[in-house]
């Protein structure tokens, strides 16, 4: 009974109830603060239940569960906002997906490497699996976010219908190939390794949870993620007012929402890094980036059948430079199979550059 009433079980349910009660309403100062507290609790609960599921199914399946779950809900949020926003949301998908890529590739990866290197001296990971994941991210980003800037079939940085269909199918193929590689054909490439390259055994002192407990955590994980995204949406008007008061561009709201949505994965990756399992952290980082592109673009291709207004996916010049720098630096980080605090710091500076230029474009 005490386990059922643990805060990690209660908070997601309370957060979901609060979401139902506050959805579509104008909130005062106190309700906004309460929603923010529940939002933080839901994030922490999501991390806990993700770790329970990961412990039950093992790596890399645990990382895959969290990455896909977060991205599916993120896609639903993007489509919902685009349907309700009309022509004013032409660049919403691009801005959200690009923010997710920068946060995962530079923020999550950089923080994980920095934390692990600070504690153990070096961060060790498998360059074969991590390199394959990075290559998939680069291919997806290039196909879906870079090419629309240079195609000439439609005016502006957007695809024609045929081009969008091709990009959606290519995204699904690339993501499917990676998932099969990660979970079936070369699963050992994505398992945590030590300094000698040997796979790190699971913690012997911690027994895996039962199947029933894992299913309960999976359900509560989904509830937590729904609450995180929904409460972040509810908080967005307050965030918009704060952003406007600070004189920041309105597009910066998307960066803040992306940070909130990706908070569960960030915390889970940081915890894994402090235990010396940087491979798990990188699985989360690159897997989330892949899912953000590989699932969002096909969903938007379908949604475009009834969405009003253009769908601008092509990146601007500043964004293109940041993406190119991120890919090049990530390659140099991944190839040796180990990294130091320097590499972690470089990635975090790139994330800082992205955030700063989002404020001062």
Automatic annotation (TrEMBL):
Residues 32-183, 217-359 form the Sodium/calcium exchanger membrane region domain. Keywords: Membrane, Transmembrane, Transmembrane helix. GO terms for cellular component: plasma membrane. Pfam families: Na_Ca_ex. It is a multi-pass membrane protein. It comes from the Bacteria. GO terms for molecular function: potassium:proton antiporter activity; sodium:proton antiporter activity. InterPro entries: Alkaline_pH_Ca-Antiporter, NaCa_Exmemb. The chain crosses the membrane at residues 7-24, 30-49, 61-84, 96-117, 129-150, 162-180, 213-232, 244-263, 284-307, 313-335, 342-359. It is found in: Membrane. PANTHER family: SODIUM-POTASSIUM/PROTON ANTIPORTER CHAA, SODIUM-POTASSIUM_PROTON ANTIPORTER CHAA. This is Ionic transporter y4hA.
């Amino acid at each position: 009974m005490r386990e059922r009433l643990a805060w990690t079980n209660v908070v997601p349910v309370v957060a979901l109830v609060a979401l139902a009660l506050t959805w579509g309403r104008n909130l005062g100062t106190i309700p906004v603060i309460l929603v923010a507290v529940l939002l933080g609790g839901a994030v922490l609960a999501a991390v806990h239940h993700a770790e329970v599921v990961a412990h039950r199914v093992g790596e890399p399946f645990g990382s895959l569960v969290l990455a896909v779950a977060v991205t599916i809900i993120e896609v639903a949020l993007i489509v919902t906002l685009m349907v309700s926003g009309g022509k004013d949301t032409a660049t919403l998908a691009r801005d959200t997906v690009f923010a997710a890529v920068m946060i995962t590739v530079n923020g999550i990866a950089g923080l994980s490497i920095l934390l692990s290197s600070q504690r153990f001296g070096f961060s060790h990971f498998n360059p074969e699996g991590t390199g394959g994941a990075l290559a998939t991210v680069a291919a997806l980003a290039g196909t879906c976010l870079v090419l629309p800037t240079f195609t000439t079939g439609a005016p502006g940085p957007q695809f024609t219908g045929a081009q969008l269909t091709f990009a959606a199918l290519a995204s699904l193929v690339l993501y499917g190939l990676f998932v099969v590689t990660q979970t079936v054909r070369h699963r050992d490439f994505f398992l945590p390794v030590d300094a000698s390259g040997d796979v790190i055994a699971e913690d012997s002192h911690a027994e895996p949870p039962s199947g029933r407990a894992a299913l309960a955590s999976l359900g509560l994980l989904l509830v937590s993620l729904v609450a995180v995204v929904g409460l972040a949406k509810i908080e967005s008007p307050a965030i918009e007012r704060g952003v406007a008061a600070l004189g920041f561009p309105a597009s910066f709201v998307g960066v803040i929402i992306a940070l909130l949505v990706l908070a569960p994965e960030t915390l889970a990756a940081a915890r894994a890094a402090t235990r010396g399992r940087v491979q798990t952290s990188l699985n989360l980082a690159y897997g989330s980036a892949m899912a953000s592109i590989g699932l969002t673009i096909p969903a938007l291709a379908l949604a475009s059948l009834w969405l009003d207004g253009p769908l601008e996916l092509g990146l601007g010049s500043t964004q293109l430079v940041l993406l190119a720098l991120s890919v090049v630096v990530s390659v140099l980080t991944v190839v040796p199979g180990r990294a130091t605090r320097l590499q972690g710091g470089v990635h975090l500076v790139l994330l800082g550059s992205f955030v700063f230029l989002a404020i001062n474009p």
